[in-house]
Amino acid sequence: MREFLQNLTNQASSRWDGLSQPWRLALVGVVVALILSLVVSLVLLRGGDYVTLYSGLIDQDRGVLAHALNQQNIDYKLTDDEIQVRVQDIDEARRISTMTRLSGGIGMFGERTLKRKGDRGYEILAPGALRMMSRDEFREFKRQALEGELERTLSTFAGIRAVAVKLSVPEPQPFVRDQVKPTASVTLELMVSGMDNGGLGINTIKAMQRVIVFQVCNRRMFM
Distance of CA 11 to CAs 4, 29, 148, Å? Predict the structure, then answer.
């Protein structure tokens, strides 16, 4: 066996010495390409690792989101307050969760809306979430981010237990005088203390209206 390996080495060395410089460079390029292919294959094989799709979900929302992923044959894992998907499925899972109106509890006009624990704001627009996304999907992502920021802000008002915001922000049309104005539908779940005080005061309601109008009207040009 040792002699066989020695002969093989000698033959390879002899053939290498007989090659011209261009052929040597070409052979080195082939070897490098094979090594890179092996490395890429190993990375893809590790694609079975799971990464977090969403965190801070209530139990009902995790179930609804898991059902939506299951319908599209996307593998997932559930933890205490997270839902995870495989690395190679993250873009498709984000697209599904963005385009599907999920409902964690508060439904409005037949739509389904995620009710989250406050981490559904502009952080979902992280650069890694925007790969391979069409213009319409990007606008949908931005709209949901704005909804999340409004839900987060409105939930800080006294007496508010949970908030669900549904925005309609039409894209401005060029050369059209009468533009369709944006609208916002807001559903509030009050705490018991808020109900004992007779509900929300008029000043609180007006303050919420100002927050919504400022957020929607000032950011419409970026939608």
Answer: 11, 21, 68
